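Format notes (please read before filing issues)

Several people have asked whether sequences and structure tokens are stored in separate files. They are not. Every record keeps both together, in the order shown below: the sequence lines, then the token lines. Line labels are part of the format and must not be stripped during preprocessing.
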Amino acid sequence: MNIQDSKSTPLPPFNLEVFLAEWEFKSPFHMAASDIETLPLNQLLEKASPQEQKLWQSLQLGYTETWGMPKLRETIAQTYKNISLNNILCFSGAEEGLFALFHVLLSPHDHVIVPTPNYQSSETIPLSICQCSGIPMEYSPSSGWSLNTQHIIDAIKPNTKLIALNSPHNPTGFIIPENQLLDIISVARKHNISILSDEVYRGVEQNPSHTTTQIADLYEQGFSLNVMSKAYGLPGLRIGWIASQNTKILQKLEQFKHYLSICNSAPSEILALIALNNRHSIIKDNQKLIKDNLSLLKTLLAEFPELIQWHTPLGGCIAFPLYNGPDTTEEFCQKLREHSGILLLPPSVYQSQLNTLQPQHFRIGFGRGASFKEGIKAMHKHFNAFYPEFKA
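Then the structure lines:
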């Protein structure tokens, strides 16, 4: 466990975004993407009901409600069990929701527990406000990734205010089992600790039986974060939300949002409404795409079994394999990029004050369409050229 103290420190560069800004649009084969192949606008509009078509055609390009369009919030609420539109606050993407929640909930005297590695905002934003403890995700060659509840319990302090979870987890694809989630909630309730649950990959689990109940449905001090970007494959809409039974905190978040985006894009809200009303078919298509891509990835890695070690992720469209080759993982990713135009996320992107994981893992994304298939071909050619000794 790595503990760092911080009081109102400046936010560091966002390593992942800095890296992607440099390479994402230069690399022919973007194999690090964290989202799923998106729908063209015309295909999404074809899914609209007559009422939604009318909303779209008569759209006024003015300000929208800070909370989000009521029809949109009603539809979002339908994705939960015990949540109404009054328990939903929309944001401009998930990033804005994270930023707002950490600043509304936390003070310099508080303490936060964060599993690592993680999406950088979940580490650096709370660390810029207060004390944080990083709880390492554990990797076993025989069973893959896991999260030890006892490590969370051991990290609790008298001033612990928040546990920030992420399931399905970025970047490992680990899903916290329902019984473990209930245990964590029980511990949090006992100590009066809030729980943030980043659930942006919920819906694209490899096995539907692994789908867990969302934290907002389970815990009165739980905050469910979701977005149209990941499981729905619509990042360009920039529509996210937080769901919670704690309406007092939601009201504070709404007031904090006045200093950020103020309100969401009117066209995006209607497009998100159309997508959510067609969520079952969209998710089904995305699940099939992921399944097909995973099959290609498994076939490639099985051909070079000693080069890369991995377990199929339980959810999401990304994985965090272990590289066993002759050079460092950083060099492995650099060689792929420079010689074959293949972009993976190297371990340096996940290095942080809280993350003590050995830098042998890299992130690969398998949610894109034709570009992923072409990337697999390029990766196969690269492995044959540079790592023939690892071929089965």
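For reference, the curators noted about this record: Residues 62-278 form a domain with the Aspartate Aminotransferase; domain 2 fold (CATH 3.40.640.10). The chain has 14 helices and 16 strands.
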